[in-house]
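How a chain folds remains the central question behind the approach discussed here. In the encoding step, the backbone of a single protein was reduced to a row of integers, each denoting a local shape. We regard such an encoding as a compact summary of how the chain folds. The sequence in question and its structure tokens are set out directly beneath this paragraph:

___
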Amino acid sequence: MGHMPTLISDLALILTVAGLMTLLCKKINQPSILGYILAGVLIGPVVKFLPTVAAKARLTVGADICVIFLMFGLGLEFSVLKMSEVGMAGFISATIKVSCVGLTGFVCGQLMGMGLMNSIFLGGMLSMSSTMVSLKAIDDMNLRQMPFVGLVTGILVIEDIAAIFLMIILSTVAVSQSISGLDLLVSLGQMFFYLIIWLVLGIYILPTFLKRTKDLMNDEMLLVVALGICFAMTWLANALGFSTALGAFLAGSILAGTVHAEHIEHLIKPCKDLFGAVFFVSVGLLVDPAVMIEYSGTIIILTIVTVVSIFVFLTFGMLLSGQSLHDAIYAATTQTQIGEFSFIIASLGLTLGVTSDFLYPVIVAVSVLTTFITPFLVRAAPKIIAFCDRVLPDKVKRKLESFQESKQSERVDNDSDWRKFLQSYFKNLLLYGAIAVGLILIVNKLVAPRIYALGYFEEHIGSYILGAVLFVLLLLLVPPLLRNRNTYFTTLWLKSRANRIPLMLLAIVRYCVACGILLLPGIMYWHIPPVLFALVVMPAIYFAAHSDRLSGQYLKIEANFLANFNERQLNENLKDSNSVGHSWLDEQLYVSKIKVAEDAEIAEKSLNELNWGNIWHVKIIRITHGKKISNIPQSAAKITAGDILCVLGEEKTLDNFVLFGQNSGNFAQVGERETLRSFIATQEDLPADQQLLCCAVTVQKDSALNDNLYQSWFRIRGSG
């Protein structure tokens, strides 16, 4: 209890002065961050006539906790779905801005004689804009409804991710005291694989856990559980040699996809705001006016370089991504400042002992000045746009407009079957390849040393056990890695014989990757020659790829994962659908009528023999043979020449099925395709006892129908 009075007096001083300063900043229409920093300066050792914080050591620990809360809060606002919505325009703009401004900061540091490490960290600090300041500037100027705001938000999201990677890079550079490409590649590779593993496991486990314990969760329990997850991920990241900020951000990003995200964000906000205030006050405590006066020239130069470089490179990046000059300039003016991530990077440099003491107060001063400048630049954006419009030659403006139009027209090309197939192919290959490599790294670096340290097994026995466990885990990845349920593959295969060779080569590449992954446990832990072990691997791959039970288990896991991954979005869509009407299954499924050719090879074959359901993912719901109508025929029903078949399926699968029939000469489509609802509604010409009916049912969570809902749909009918 001896330390408690000092801690309480420090907190009282920090929060009281911070509150007064933020009120002053709000009065003069400035961000609250400036008030916190100013409060830190006032209660620091520089201002003698005011009380000073006594427990600086404990405040430093508090600042570390503040960073965790800040990163956790940013993670809650982030989601992979948001990243996918940003698009290529946001990615191009953010990449050009971060890389070019960072390089400019590095060169500037070198020219001013700051040294290698100071210059590297300086470049990183200058490249990160403040999310809070940028969005506040947009709100203050009433620009929320402007078309560029969505892109600005996307760029800021990408910058947050880039900042995480940048912290990893800077930590690696700081440890090695040199720029080693191999070290950077290894660190980033490890982080990438761990990131994939954490996200996959986290998205699969955490939302499921929260759903199972939903009835037990009140506000108190949800807050405790969320913070427990946050600090557990922070500890795990630190144990693996990464920054605590990465773990906190990752914990928030996993929870961001759950339906509890907004509630957790609401509960966490007071804690985040409180610790955020303490963090920025601690930033102000490190400000030394004497140092700022000494380096005033450096501060002014860096302020000008920051504002100009961000404005120029972000404008250029947005123009290059196909945005208009108006939107590019407006967006650039909102981000001409540095903020919270710059302070975190500066703290990282001090903690690692690789940056000079003068750099921190210099960066704080640059942040304050650029934050003051940003609102004025946003207000001046229309004048800057008008000036550029006057100065730029008509030829340049026409080229910019033409380039913008061409970028927009590229969206048409994105709909090609080959492009969609390749996107799906490489996404699948990279995802499961990364998971496999991540599993190997975790077993090799985390599990193996602890197994050997326990001493229960001799080293060679432990190696055999680890190899077997890893082999089984990797074997489970084979079905999703090799599965070829992509409808675009089928479309391309049927569309042209010329497509079949490249498609077969891509399939072989996929099999080679699977084989290479499964060979690794034998080489690493069993020391079996690759050629000999391949004799074991090849049958295992065949078994895994053709095992219905294994594929079924995987599909169940995949369904749970996708449900958890899209939980928040699905819940929002459900709310929207309840307000505007349901999107029923019979509106999403289509019916095509096909006529069996007189000389068809499929004639006199049963539906069971044809196996169209498993091969083409379609369902025969009616067979018309002369005047005889058979609804929902049994698998033993035979197809005869001249029969009219009503085939049910998704639109793309029906395209592939009809194309197959035309190419083989077995059948051809007759009439127009229609939705199942339309098909059911237009049966007036049939007797009532021969009509197909469908009904809507609510499937309970634990119902057996959940195991095979698509097949069960056709067994629930009123007559026929």
About this structure: Residues 133 and 566 are 30 Å apart (CA to CA).
